[in-house]
Every structure is written in C-alpha cells, then in structure tokens.
Amino acid sequence: MQRKILTAIVVAVLATCLTAPAIAQPSTESTAAITVDDAAQQAIALETQIEDLQAEQIAIEERISVTNIRIFRQQEVLTASRQRLEDAQAAYEERLVRLYKSGSTDPITILLGAESFSDFYTRLFMLTRIARHDREAYLDATVAKAAAEYEAALLDDLKVQDVELRQIKEQRLTELERAFQEQKLIVARLSKQERDLLAQQRAQNALTRRQWEDSSIPPDQVVPLLPAIVEPYTDVTFLVADYQPKKYRTTGKEMNAVCSWYGNEFHGRRTASGQIFNQNDLTCASRTLSFGTRLALTRGDRRIVVVVNDRGPFISGRDLDLSREAARQLGFSGVETVRAEYVETVD
C-alpha cells in the first residue's frame, strides 16, 4: 500500500512538472526534518529544477557566443567607420595644403591677380571647385563621424549585454550548484525503489530532449505556413507551420507580451529544449513557459500560432523572443507589444 501511495505521489509530481514554470524555487525546508516519502518528492522536484536550470544555461551560453560574434563584427564596422573619417579629414587637409602652396589664401587676391579674362575665368573655376570639394570633404567627414559614433554606441550596448548575460550565467551556475548539493544530500537517504523512480525521471528527461532534437527542422529547409482555426475565432485564420495541428482553442488565459525577435547568427544553433533553431519556423523563447506551450499571437490583423522551444529573452522588460519568421509574419522588426493567448490543440 505504501508503495502505491508513493507511486501516486510521484506521478502527481511528474504531472505538475510538465506544466510548471521553468525555474522551480529552491526548497527552504531542512533536509533533516523531511520524511522518506517527502524526500522522494523533493528529489524529483529538484531533478526538474536542475533540468530547467541546465536548459536555461544552454540558452545563455548560446547568447553569449552570439553576442561575442556581434561584438567582433561591430568592432570591425567601427574600425571601418573611423577609417572613413580619417580618410575624409586627410583629403580635406590635403586640399588646404595645396591652396596654401598657391601663395595666397585670399580668394579676392587670387582673382585680382588674373592677367586676362581667360585667366580670371580659370581662377574662378578653380576656386569654385575648391569650395565644392571642401564642402564635400566636410560633409563626408561629418557623415563618417556620425557613423563612427553610431557604431561605437552599438558596440557599447553589445558589451553591456555581454556583461549582463555573464552575470545571469554566474547566478544560474550558483543556483545549479546549490540544487545539485541539495539533491546529493536527499538522494543519500532514498531507498532503492525511490532511487529507481528518480532514475526513471532522469531517463524521461533525456528522452524528451532527444525527441525535441529529433523534431528539428533542418536549417536549410523552408517551413511552409498554412491557415489554422483558433476557437472561438472561427471567422478568422491564424498562420501555423505546416507540420503543426490546424485546429486550436483558447484556454482563457492571455497577456500583452513585449516581443523581440532573434535569427541570423542563432540559425542552426541548439535551443534550450534541444531542438535546433530554425529562424524560418514559427517558434519563440520564453523565460517561464514550458517547452511545447502554444501561443496564438495577434498584432492588428496579423495572426500566428507559435510554439515555445527556447529560453529567453534575457533583456529586462521583454516577455518573448520570436523567431525571425514569426516577427515578420506579425509585421515588425524591432520590439513590439502583441496579444498572446494560450491555446491547446483540438482533436
């Protein structure tokens, strides 16, 4: 009987883990004060927490890697912008030197020194060209300076993001280490049966990750989009990836989500779920929603259904990171607020 009760408790915990937020709160209960059955439950809950922390760690590592690539490229762009500025300034200074070598910098003196009308016209034409070239050099230098300042600001922003991501990484590593240590103490008190149940949980987590990886859409593959129905909005259609179900219903839960997007350098990289990121698919990253959660997103008259397969965004004030195609279908390229409704499939 005790075994049946324990099994029922574990099943309930597993079911809860499938829909729980990504990061479980570390237990503050003393390890010495809990019973054996409680220890089994806590061990499984910690296993889920560890799994989620490791998944988020994957996402952070990928973003740090991509940010470093962007910093390197931005440094090259900044160097090129500053070189254009130096070239424009050098050309301007060279023209000034040539003018000084002519013996006079006073345009009136130069014109009055003409020996004939033809000479006067030649000198006037020369001064006009000098003035025009000087203006062009000034404008070139101004544009080059503005470009350099802009690229420098972008580089500074990227460096700030890199620092913030590394701080988050250190925090997650600390949480992960604490969870591992707590798990170690609890597992030492488990019976063989309870350890077997914990091993089953770990095997299930590994299987789920393999299933996500196996479901990846190859990066070079186009993902066709097809219309779908989301009840009760039967008079309008939502776009979904062709391999996804075509009929959904809302759960009654919704939010206004601040959305950014990611793609390009992330295309073909591993997501926190284990699936390979395809920027042409309709997916998104969330800090808290379980992998596989489906959201119906609406912006104006544009509607899509996305699936959560990654962790992020890690910039304060943002709720979802959409794939490039998801953002394109919603008609934005920066940061926008969209209506997000939780949906489930209809058989």
> The CATH topology of the largest domain is what?
Helix Hairpins
Largest sheet: 6 strands, mixed, barrel
What proportion strand? 15-25%
Average residue pLDDT: 81
Cα Rg: 31 Å
Q: Residue ranges: pLDDT <50 for 5 or more in a row? A: 1-34
Strand order of the largest sheet: 3-7-4-6-5-8
Broad CATH class of the largest domain: Mainly Alpha
Tell me what the CATH architecture of the largest domain is. Answer: Orthogonal Bundle
- How does the overall form come out from the CA principal axes? elongated
User: Could you tell me the number of beta strands?
Assistant: 8
Helix content: 55-70%
SSE pattern: HHHHHEEEEEEEHE
Summarize the structure.
The chain is α/β, with parallel strands linked by helices and 347 residues long. The chain contains 6 helices and 8 strands.
Question: Which terms would index this structure?
Answer:
347 residues; alpha/beta; Helix Hairpins; Barwin-like endoglucanases; 6-stranded mixed β-barrel; 6 helices; 8 strands; 19% strand; disordered N terminus
General description of the model:
There is one protein chain. With 347 residues, this protein is of the alpha/beta class. The protein folds into two domains: 1-214, Helix Hairpins (Orthogonal Bundle), CATH 1.10.287; 225-345, RlpA-like domain (Barwin-like endoglucanases). It is 55% helix and 19% strand. The protein contains six helices and eight strands, in the order αααααβββββββαβ. The chain has a six-stranded mixed barrel with strand order 3-7-4-6-5-8. Strand 5 and strand 6 form a beta hairpin. Helix 1 packs parallel to helix 2, helix 2 packs antiparallel against helix 4 and helix 2 (36-101) packs parallel to helix 5. Mean pLDDT is 81; it is low at 1-34.
